[in-house]
Amino acid sequence: MSYLQEQIAVEKQRITVYEAKIEKCKKRIESLEFLMQDSDDELDILAANTATVKPMIPSQSSNEVNVMTGNRRRAIGGNQLALLRFIGTEGKTLKDMVAFSNENNFGMDDQNLRNFAMIYRRRYKLLENPHPGFYRLTIAGQDAIK
């Protein structure tokens, strides 16, 4: 193999790596878009106000609840609320969540659901993660879905 052929092979390998990174970024974007679809608030703004989670305040609609994060209110409805109710106090594995998402045509794969769980665990304190790949509602989460 000549020097130029070797360089071509190296560049093709780089393209493959970059394409994989691009796909990973696209999945992250899909996850963030999913989380924003039922909310008027920007997640970035909410992230700045994550001091403590206050008690949940039911909204006008039975299909939506409001979470107080710091001094900001975030509406949770639609697919997010359905996922939280599915997870429940007994908890679910990531595999169970993927199956539920597929059954209900949410269009979320395991990476999207991992991101969902991470955000609702870290920012809103509605989920806990007692061991890898397993999630359940916290007390605040239980109050949110009532």
What keywords describe this structure?
three-stranded antiparallel sheet, Arc Repressor Mutant, subunit A, alpha+beta, elongated
Shape by Cα distribution: elongated
Number of helical elements: 6
Fill in the CATH topology.
Answer: Arc Repressor Mutant, subunit A
In N-to-C order, the SSE pattern is: HHEEEHEHHEEH
> Which architecture name does CATH use?
Orthogonal Bundle
Taking the sheet with the most strands, its summary is: 3 strands, antiparallel
Low-confidence stretches: 42-62
Summary, kept brief:
The chain has helices spanning 3-36, 43-47, 78-87, 94-103, 110-122, 139-145; strands spanning 57-58, 64-69, 72-77, 92-93, 127-131, 134-137.
What does the model show?
The chain is α+β, with helices and mostly antiparallel strands and 146 residues long. The protein has a single domain (28-145), classed as Arc Repressor Mutant, subunit A. Helices cover 54% and strands 17% of the residues. It contains six helices and six strands. It has helices spanning 3-36, 43-47, 78-87, 94-103, 110-122, 139-145; strands at residues 57-58, 64-69, 72-77, 92-93, 127-131, 134-137. The strands form two sheets. The chain has a three-stranded antiparallel sheet. The chain has a three-stranded antiparallel sheet with strand order 4-6-5. A hairpin with a 2-residue loop joins strand 2 and strand 3. Helix 1 (3-36) crosses helix 5 (110-122). The longest helix is centred in the first third of the chain and has 34 residues, at 3-36. The protein is elongated, with a radius of gyration of 19 Å. Residues 42-62 have low confidence and may be disordered.
